Recover the amino acids of this structure.
């Protein structure tokens, strides 16, 4: 049967079916919510086939620097977040970062006995959310103009807090405004990457422990919660990306020289699969590891490997560096093999170091959700934390590999 591109209901059903097939919608409750809310109402003027695509963001707002400050997230991201949140009838839910559509989905999930508050720092976004929610029949959603760093105390306590913007930290107001057994779903930025994490609160200690985490990309928070990562330029098109609190020094001129050295390759025998899990392991298990990024021109000119285009962990020693690559290998379960490319006077050493970490991950942690992630607010003693740590403004994030 041919799908009519001018039939929103049919396109909506096809979107939900695709998200189920991809394993991103796993419950009937989330499927019913996404089948009920007319997504096109929240993206006026957008083509229907784009509105109901699973990987497209909608209604972008661009700031003075040319970067997006607000979007309606892709439906596959919204499905992941809603499944992570585990929203039940009658819950009180706060959404951080508005747009309207996701708040309508949450309203479907909490039902007539629940309540939904959505907050945004941008007056234009708030006005649009109010207008679209009213047009779609979700007037019960409370839309608030405020800096979400402070939460929305007048509507607390919340059973769930769902952030739809990338956060570098968890503001102290959020756990303070949770119920004792509440959950925070947040795209948390650390080690120059973002992971969409569902944190459950321990009612006895207030420690937040990750129930699960997924890959995700989001526009950054504005206001008091904003943070700027460090960029160490090696060339005009190649740079190291670092957390704001990163203290390591890098010898950019020496690394620039290393780009002219012939590279060495080493191959691990391990499959190139779940690269986001390997990425997390490399960033939180080895030495001080930055993310290596390159523009398309550096790829086209053959200066760096294509795997660097969207960022990859790199071991850096003085004027030498190594990062992971891949090649076809039918003998692995994924059909690809993970390898290492290194340059510089100590290329052999940094290549072997990275190769050892890759093999360690492949041998012991080759699965989804192998990391243990905790967030300790400043009010909680973090002295007994083990593993990799990131000290934030309001607490400490710890990642370990048990």
């Amino acid at each position: 049967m041919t799908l009519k591109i001018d039939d929103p209901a049919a396109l909506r059903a096809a979107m939900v079916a695709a998200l189920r097939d991809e394993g991103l919608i796993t419950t009937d409750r989330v499927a019913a919510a996404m089948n009920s809310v007319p997504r096109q109402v929240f993206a006026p003027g957008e083509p229907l086939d784009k509105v109901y695509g699973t990987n497209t963001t909608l209604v972008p707002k661009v700031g003075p620097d040319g970067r997006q400050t607000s979007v309606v997230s892709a439906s596959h991201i919204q499905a992941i977040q809603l499944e992570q949140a585990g929203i039940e009838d009658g819950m009180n839910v706060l959404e951080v970062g508005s747009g309207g559509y996701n708040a309508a989905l949450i309203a479907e999930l909490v039902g007539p006995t629940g309540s939904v508050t959505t907050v945004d720092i941008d007056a234009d976004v708030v006005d649009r959310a109010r207008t679209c929610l009213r047009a779609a029949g979700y007037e019960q959603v409370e839309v608030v103009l405020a800096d979400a760093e402070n939460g929305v105390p007048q509507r607390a306590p919340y059973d769930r807090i769902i952030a739809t913007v990338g956060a570098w930290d968890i503001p102290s107001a959020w756990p303070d405004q949770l119920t004792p057994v509440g959950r925070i779903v947040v795209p948390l930025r650390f080690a120059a990457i973002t992971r969409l994490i569902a944190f459950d609160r321990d009612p006895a200690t207030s420690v937040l422990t990750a129930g699960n985490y997924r890959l995700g990309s989001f526009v950054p928070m504005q206001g008091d919660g904003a943070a700027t990562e460090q960029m160490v330029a090696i060339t005009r098109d190649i740079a190291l990306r670092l957390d704001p609190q990163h203290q390591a020094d890098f010898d950019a001129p020496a690394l620039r020289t290393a780009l002219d050295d012939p590279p060495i390759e080493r191959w691990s025998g391990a499959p190139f699969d779940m690269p986001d899990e390997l990425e997390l392991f490399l960033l939180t298990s080895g030495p001080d590891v930055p993310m290596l990024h390159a523009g398309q021109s550096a790829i086209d000119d053959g200066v760096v490997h294509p795997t660097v285009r969207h960022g990859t962990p790199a071991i850096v020693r003085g004027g030498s560096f190594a990062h992971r690559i891949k090649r076809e290998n039918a003998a692995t379960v994924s059909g690809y093999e993970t390898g290492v490319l290194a340059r510089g006077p100590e290329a052999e050493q940094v290549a072997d170091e990275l190769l050892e970490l890759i093999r360690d991950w492949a041998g012991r942690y080759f699965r989804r959700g192998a990391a243990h992630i905790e967030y300790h607010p400043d009010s909680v003693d973090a002295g007994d934390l083990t593993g990799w740590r990131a000290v934030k403004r309001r607490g400490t994030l710890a990642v370990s590999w048990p």
About this structure: The radius of gyration is 22 Å.
